[in-house]
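Supplementary Text 2. Reproducibility record for the structural model of the 378-residue chain.

All settings were left at their defaults, and a single model was retained for analysis rather than an ensemble. We include the record here because the model underlies the residue-level annotations in Supplementary Table 4.
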Amino acid sequence: MRDVLLIGDSERSMELRHEIPVAIGDPFAYAEVGGRRFVTVFSLERDNVLAAAPDVELRPLEGYKPEELVANGFDFYSMYPELYARFARDVGLERAVVPETFPVAHADRLRRDGIEIEVDQRFFDDRRRAKTPAEIDGISRAQRAAEAGMEAVRTMLRLSEPGDGGRVLDGEPMTCELLKQAATDAFDRYGCRGDDLIVARGPQGASGHDRGSGRVANDDVLVCDLFPRHLASGCFADMTRTFAVGAVDPEIAEWHAQCLEALELAVSLARPGADGTAIHAAVDGFFAERGHPTNLTKPVGAVLRDGFLFATGHGVGLEVHESPLIGRMGHTFVAGDVIALEPGLYRHGFGGVRIEDLVLVAEDGCEVLTDFPYDLVP
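Retained model, structure tokens:
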């Protein structure tokens, strides 16, 4: 059993949020020593920590005498490495595995005390793979918020009409910004937040992460990628639908049908023991057989701007992109993984199509968590 040390805040360190599932904005330290779990934090956060993780042994940070350090000339930047070094000695830590984001100043201070620090990000990624029941619940709540946001977008597009210079709704110009605001308003009603979302029109949809802006054309295609975060659990969802308004370009319609078939293929292969690299290769091969450029068929070193450009998917949890990977480099699936599968086709200067579902890897296969129609026309 390897001992563990984490230092940070649980709003930005997902390694910490996994162990102490509550948002704490100020830094604190967490350790596992010989199978026992310890936390040191100022007494202000004592009740929050124990409510979220009642099995931890709490060591109040005041007990390591910060007043003494201030009196001896320690400033803000040197005091905390010293306090956490005292905590490490108190709990008997001699060597610890840490994530790649572990603060260097703290590592240097601990090493001066002879404590061995080993960086192993895979260790922490792997321990977050199989989601806890609380994380599954948070992801499911975020997914319901995503669906509500997508329904708000779809409804507005369906009710919009052609106008002078672009589509209008209730006499007002319809913009990507207006659609995104409707989605974020829906998130709020489900206890979620997601200001950083994608509603990209026309050629903007050819970029995987163009957030989208401007007036929706009378004949247009929109790639809508929503990934709200459930505030209480810190967990994300992720889903994408593509909508066409006005006259539908036949090529876009063909792409949409192919992306949906590719999604069905990927879902059919998702189960414990499945290889993310193999699933990506299967989807890549599906698109290549239909004449699309792909990352696995392009010349080595070539920059691909059209076709199947990106990975097939990724894990979702406390981060919107986390392990397992489903791409050129992939992981073997385990029961409890939550993955987003998102095949897409793109052409620079023209547009794109992407369809994305959230999937829970179960003991005997997988469960699609997304419950929303795939219709291209809203």
